[in-house]
Every structure is written in C-alpha cells, then in structure tokens.
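Private note to self, pasted from the team thread so I don't lose it. Backbone tokens:
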C-alpha cells in the first residue's frame, strides 16, 4: 500500500486483512441489490473494490453491484451502509444466496 501508514476502517488495520493472505471472497453482494444498486457501499469502500460505479459505462446494464474478491480487504465498511442488507461476509451469506459468491467472482473474471 502507498501512503503514510496502513489503511484503517472502523479501527481495523486493513493491511493485515484476509485479502493480503490470499483468501478470496471476504464479502458478497446478494439478491437484495438487484434492481436497487444503491451506491452507499461504493462511497464507504476505502479501496474502491465495488463496481460498477455510477460513472462507469457498465452501471446502467448491470442488475446489481459486485465486490472484487481480489481488491476487497475484508474491512466490512460496506455492510452497515447498505440500505437493503445485500452485503454479507462469506460465512454469513444465507444458503439461498450461495450462488452469489460465484456471480460476484465471475463479474471480475476471478473464478
């Protein structure tokens, strides 16, 4: 990381996150995001891992937002700001939405 020190979110040192240990898919955006695409999560993300953004060409065509499993640093900053409770830690993702793990990874060509 560049800058004067480690990136922090909610008091957590993000330079020691699961992302740095090579663990994929810390957080998943699931079905409640479909059709909503509220970008509060994009604004809350300290590493710019949620796409597409409103200013990206793919935003209009996308049915939901996606978290890049490589760029996500497992900070959880996106979870509390989601107005439709669509973002889950991998181990808290409801069984009915398990396929969204692959859907998020596939969006970035990471599966």
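Design output:
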């Amino acid at each position: 990381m560049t800058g004067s020190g480690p990136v922090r979110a909610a008091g957590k040192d993000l330079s020691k996150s699961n992302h740095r240990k090579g663990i994929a898919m810390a957080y998943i955006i699931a079905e409640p995001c479909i059709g909503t695409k509220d970008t509060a999560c994009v604004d809350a993300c300290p590493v710019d891992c949620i796409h597409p953004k409103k200013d990206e060409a793919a935003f209009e065509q996308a049915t939901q937002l996606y978290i890049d499993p490589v760029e996500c640093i497992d900070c959880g900053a996106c979870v509390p700001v989601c107005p439709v409770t669509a973002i889950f830690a991998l181990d808290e993702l409801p069984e009915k939405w398990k396929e969204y793990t692959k859907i998020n990874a596939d969006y970035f060509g990471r599966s």
